[in-house]
Specification:
376 residues, alpha/beta, seven-stranded mixed sheet, three-stranded antiparallel sheet, 40% helix, 14% strand, globular, binds pyridoxal-5'-phosphate
Length: 376
Amino acid sequence: MQFIDLKAQQALIETSLKKRIETVLSHGKYIMGPEIFELEEKLANYCGVKHCVCCSSGTDALLLALMAYDIGPGDAVFTTPFTFIATAEVISLLGATPVFVDINPETFNIDAGKLQQAIADVTSGKKSSPGAPEGLKPRGVIPVDIFGCPAEYDTIGKVARENNLFVLEDACQSFGARYKNKRACSLGDMAATSFFPAKPLGCYGDGGAVFLNDDALSEKITSIRIHGQGSNKYDNVRIGLNGRMDTMQAAVLLCKLDLFDKELENRQGVAHRYGEALSGGFTLQTVPEHSMSAWAQYAIVSDNRDEIIGKLKAANIPAAIYYPKPLHLQDAFSLLGHTKGDFPVSESIADRIFSVPFHPYLEKEDQQRIIKAIRG
Ligand SMILES: *Cc1c(COP(=O)(O)O)cnc(C)c1O
């Protein structure tokens, strides 16, 4: 049994995949070929956003967005410590300071009430951590839609607007999810998603995209994506990146997009079956009534994590831990000077959480076997 089965999906798109790839091989526009623009238009429509800019990865999508906002030294960007490293890595990479805010124990997403307090603290000149620079300027918030479940954007947006901050949605796990009739990737001022193979919509390599409605910022991101280009290839108006998506990956995504809605539906079914079977004895991620998760991961919280993972292993069922160590305790952020106890909810969840096999093609019998091993 596999943690995420990509082969089952591949069998369903084999013919269209071959056709799409052959088309790319015959036109030969491997960089910025027509598939890129076709994909951008389709993705923007899908998410209900004016602009989609495809790029090299989810990490680069976050980076492009922050670069468009001119984030740099002296800036504070608020985010959750319970996420993949990339969310906060890009803040530090630009010389700005990540200010961590603890999570809600039920959704595992950033706690909007604590966000308000954290912004007020930085605004009043309080240091966000022992190692953080003095006098930081609050600039923006990066909520993460963890495991595919959108954060609380109404509350976050209100707090952000009151403080003149941008909201950059880290939708790297939530492509396809919904929040109050809006799609993920349309829930903040900008959004970044990832097409890493294991994400809800994945390509066969690295890929990502930025989503936004603002025309001027979209043009700026398009420029930064290709070395800060101006009116032509050898006119450079700003410092940028080699942040393009390969045409081949766009071709793969165009094929997968045809299956995507059906897969989202399947994901709801698989999640529902896990929920029914496990809700009694375990803490599961709460997806609010007004949201639909893209279920990038199915997470379970238990005081007996190691024992359960052991039982799964014995039954030849893979398990994984997302995430064993919150970001404020990672060596990469040691300069911030955080210590254990700074974000107790994130720490407690990280100590007890694990994820079980989850994909749209998980067979009922396999799922029964997993459930049986977990309940053991
Ligand atoms: C996967 C992921 C990223 C990074 O995406 P890549 O495409 O791997 O660069 C960023 N944030 C979160 C929350 C992710 O899960």
